[in-house]
Design brief:
alpha/beta, 9-stranded mixed sheet, about 10% strand
Length: about 450
């Protein structure tokens, strides 16, 4: 049968399950309801490499819609194919009546799902081979662009395996029982990542949720890096949840100094000047017992692109169970090529949100605010103060703004206090939470700890 159906010139260059395609085409004529069943299970007829067999699928689909259930005689399929060929819809010659008759006799509808799976597997392999060839050509080209070409290849790699159609949509009837169950079942502790602040955890139903992008905005010198590192410490050091810090501004050594200062309550200036006391060292020794084994990864490479971060996240999710990423800070990320800065930031913001959702992790992005707060009497920041705020605010699930009155007034009666202004909380309440800023220990803490 294969010799009849496929001429030598028609054979695909890459992997293909030709015999499975032949059996599947025969099976759907004998049992046309398989077209709907297989499509619902995620099979894509575009994965059938033989054009004339793929058009049999389309013909069965058309005729099945017109005549309803029951086997479709090959003559009906032939009439549909001849009609399409005559009006120019079908670009290749259809099978002859003898070929269709022989094909019909080879039907094995009971194993159609298995053969469809083999076709899908071969199609994935073929796309992977083609992508490898494309990657080689791009890498050898004098015009190779690391940012654009790697990003394009990464996007293409994500499309090599198509998601199951069955997973794309669900009826509300299927979803409602889960919603009712969640209504009476508080989130389990292991499903959330503690923020390190009691009131924030209460506001966010236990902490950060998988798939969230959290934006922490502040003016310079407000302590946003200290706050971001504190979130990573709360996850990794205190709760043993794998976390990654990507710092584009501070060195890994400086960040390590901050972690030690915060956990051991050693003055940060003592560490920087090398004048730690015996008491400091004793506290450091005790703190090291839980700092050293913490799954906290720190990367201070100054260049960070979306494709580079994606590769690193994928690796750490697979090897370390990564659940939290802190980026310091958004405006220092390498922007993709775009017509203007606002579009570039929008691409970064959207890329980070999609990354969080895809890998089921929480991404916390520190961001610089514009000069809006300084031009207001009250000085308190607003969500609109985010630079290029439109796309960042839109993509973020949570926006937290840091504000310290003593950063503007040294003699403020609220010296040492810091407000965490939750300006956006998708699906939940907003609030302003007061914490204590202990800059000498490189940390923010709950007021109850002061």
């Amino acid at each position: 049968m294969s010799d009849i159906l496929w001429a030598e010139d028609d054979l695909p260059a890459g992997p293909a399950a030709l015999d499975d395609e032949h059996i599947l085409a025969a099976s759907i004529m004998a049992r046309p309801e398989l077209v709907d069943d297989l499509a619902a299970a995620g099979f894509d007829p575009a994965d059938i490499t033989t054009d004339r067999l793929r058009w049999i699928w389309y013909a069965v689909e058309e005729v099945h819609t017109a005549i309803g259930d029951g086997a479709i005689p090959w003559q009906a399929v032939d009439r549909q194919l001849q009609t399409w060929r005559a009006d120019g819809t079908m670009p290749v010659p259809p099978l002859t009546r003898v070929q269709l008759s022989d094909l019909y006799a080879a039907a094995m509808p009971g194993s159609a799902e298995w053969h469809a799976d083999q076709i899908t597997r071969a199609a994935v392999a073929a796309r992977l081979v083609a992508l490898g060839h494309d990657a080689r050509l791009k890498g050898l080209s004098p015009a190779f662009d690391p940012d654009a070409d790697v990003a394009a290849l990464q996007a293409a790699l994500d499309g090599v395996v198509r998601p199951d159609a069955a997973g794309r949509a669900a009826t509300i009837g299927d979803l409602l029982p889960g919603a009712l169950e969640r209504a009476v079942t508080p989130p389990k502790a292991g499903e959330r990542i503690p923020t390190g602040f009691i009131d924030l955890d209460n506001l966010f139903a236990g902490g950060w949720a998988p798939g969230q992008m959290v934006v922490v905005g502040a003016r310079p010198a407000m302590g946003k890096t200290t706050f971001g590192i504190g979130l990573a410490r709360a996850a990794a050091v205190r709760n043993k949840i794998p976390a990654l810090v990507r710092s584009l501004e501070m060195s890994a050594d400086d960040l390590a100094n901050g972690v030690l200062s915060a956990e051991a309550r050693i003055g940060l200036h003592h560490i920087k000047l090398g004048i730690a006391t015996d008491d400091d060292l004793a506290r450091a020794a005790r703190a090291s017992e839980h700092i050293v084994p913490a799954p906290l990864h720190i990367d201070d490479q100054p260049l960070l692109t979306l494709p580079g971060l994606r590769a690193q996240v994928r690796h750490l999710v697979r090897t370390a169970g990564l659940r939290l990423v802190v980026i310091d800070y958004l405006q220092l990320m390498q922007a993709p090529r775009a017509e203007n800065r606002q579009v570039a930031v929008s691409m970064i913001s959207r890329g980070l949100k999609l990354m969080a959702k895809e890998f089921g992790i929480t991404i916390v992005v520190l961001a610089q605010l514009n000069r809006g707060p300084e031009q207001r009497t009250e000085k308190k920041p607003m969500v609109s103060d985010l630079r290029e705020s439109g796309s960042i605010e839109q993509d973020a699930d949570i926006v937290i703004l840091l504000h310290r009155e003593d950063a503007y007034e040294k003699d403020s009666p609220r010296a040492g206090e810091a407000d965490l202004i939750v300006g956006k909380h998708r699906g939940g309440p907003t609030a302003t939470i007061t914490t204590a800023f202990q800059g000498h220990f490189a940390r923010f803490v709950d007021m109850s700890q002061t």
